[in-house]
Amino acid sequence: MGDKTILLIGTYDTKDPEMRYLEECIVAQGGNVLTMDVSVLGDPSQPTDISKHDVAAACDMTIEDVIALGDENKAFRVMSEGAAKVVRDARSEGRFDAMLATGGTMGTDLALDCAQAIPMGVPKYIVSTVSFSPLIPPHRLAPDIQMILWAGGLYGMNAICRSSLSQAAGAVLGAARAVEPPKSERPVVGMTSLGSSCLRYMKILKPELEARGFDVAVFHSTGMGGMAFEKLAGEGAFACVMDFCMQEFANMLAGSLVSSGEDRLTNAGRAGIPQMVAPGALDLLDFAGWQDIPPQFSDRPFHEHNRLIKSAVFNADERRNGIREMAKRLEQTTGPTHFFLPVGGVEEWDREGQEAHDPEGLAALIDEARNVMPAVVNTTEIDAHINDQAFADAVLAQFDEWVAEGVVRKV
Predict the structure, then answer these.
(1) Are 97 and 5 in contact (CB under 8 A)?
(2) 125 and 167 Cβ atoms separated by less than 8 Å
(3) CA 66 to CA 49: how far, in whole Å?
(4) How far apart are CA 410 and CA 173, in angstroms?
(5) 311, 222 Cβ separation under 8 angstroms
(6) Residue 159 burial class via C-beta count within 10 angstroms: exposed 0-12, middle 13-18, buried 19 and up
(7) What is the reported pLDDT for 371?
(8) Is the separation of the CB atoms in 86 and 59 below 8 Å?
(9) pTM for the complete prediction?
(10) Nearest alpha carbon to residue 117 among 90, 146, 139
């Protein structure tokens, strides 16, 4: 028997040879497989461990009911929902150690739901003909998902197809063997930030928090980092959060693709996790480096960070709106929440002489924050820039108070 079990997900009616090839590759390397068929019309060459009937039943339907929908899209939406439920249950029962799914657009759509149903730290791979495609919106991606382009894999087996599949088989089994689950012997503080050229408070806070007996996980707030942060917060992985970078949140409000999704700034509060929040980088709107700046933002100052990302500057009204939306979400919190307002600036590029320097815009942000933060949120106003020592000192003082009061627990 092998040491790790890989859940294989695919449409065995149309991709039976490919799925069997994956099985052979994994078993040949000493692994086990748990096979799952998500077909609708046809049948596999031999039974799978989890059948399409099991998947349909998870949605209280028979496969005949699914077929009777008479529409491929509707049928696969049902199978996606059922597959995610089956995968979630199978993982909770300890039936597999990692997931590997295959697909074109239909199979990938379903596989993305399955990956979202599995906790972080469980390897999840998708071999897809549309890997890395802009067809896949960021919010559909599980934070730690891996994708491999299924080159030459649209129809039938061939040498190029085997190269993709064999790499995937080796990668997922290797990951299942090597992964270190995200568990710490020390309580974890989840923190959001950007690179230190823009936000650098983590350089001060991380060693101080570690000296106090906490582990610190800093998430890069450029889309996927925020998704991982929110998912872990929702799972109760943090003893406290220091959510000091709102760039993804502002991006989401403005419709930028550099977003971490609609649930940003909600999961810690919903889970009752003590949270500290600040409006770091709320003045910046991100674009992909390869995008043209849309005409409505073309007259704004902007910072070209590198070939992947560049930022325009929000005006005063847009900053006020960002603060109002923050307040609405923080009002729903079920745990202790503290808002820090650094009146000297919210990111490095807004200092005098830098591209984003806008005293009127900063004043509007500060004024709005003073007026709209709900009563459930305690506020500390700091006469300093967010990157100054004074900001970190105020945060640590509040953190120490919460620890002393038992709000933040060390065990």
Answers:
(1) yes
(2) no
(3) 20
(4) 35
(5) no
(6) exposed
(7) 97
(8) no
(9) 0.84
(10) 90
Inform me whether the pLDDT recorded for 188 exceeds 90. yes
Number of neighbours of residue 47 by Cβ within 10 angstroms: 11
CA distances from 74 to 5, 53, 130, 199, 284 (A): 31, 16, 20, 45, 40
Average pLDDT over residues 259-271: 92
How does 105-130 read in b/e, with b if 16+ C-beta sit within 10 Å? ebbbbbbbbbbbbbbbebbbbbbbbb
Exposure pattern of 201-216 as b/e (b: 16+ CB <10 Å)? bbebbbebbeebebbb
DSSP string for 290-325: TSPPPGGGTTS-EEE-SSSEEEEE--HHHHHHHHHH
Pairing of strands 240-245, 188-193: parallel
Determine contact, residues 286/309, Cβ cutoff 8 Å.
Answer: yes
**Are 208 and 392 spatial neighbours (Cβ–Cβ below 8 Å)?**
yes
Burial 291-311 (b: 16+ CB within 10 A, else e): eeeeeeeeebebbebeeebbb
First to last CA, the chain: 38
pLDDT digits (tens, 9 = 90+) for 377-393: 999 999 999 999 999 99
In whole angstroms, what is the distance from residue 27 CA to residue 2 CA?
7
* 398's tokens: 């509040």
Per-residue confidence (pLDDT) for residue 2, from 0 to 100: 65
Of the listed ranges 6-15, 22-31, 202-211, 292-301, the least confidently predicted one is 292-301
Taking each helix axis from N to C terminus, what angle separates 159-178 and 16-28, rounded to the nearest 10 degrees? 50
**Over the chain, what is the mean pLDDT?**
94
Bridge partner list, 337: 275
- H/E element holding 160? helix 159-178
Q: How far apart are CA 26 and CA 44, in angstroms?
A: 19
Tens-place pLDDT, residues 34-65: 999 999 999 999 999 999 999 999 999 999 99
Q: Looking only at Cα atoms, what is the longest distance across the chain?
A: 70
Tally of CB atoms within 10 A around 138: 15
* Among the listed residues 236, 232, 191, 229, the one whose alpha carbon sits nearest the alpha carbon of residue 210: 191
Token code pair at residue 152: 């030459």
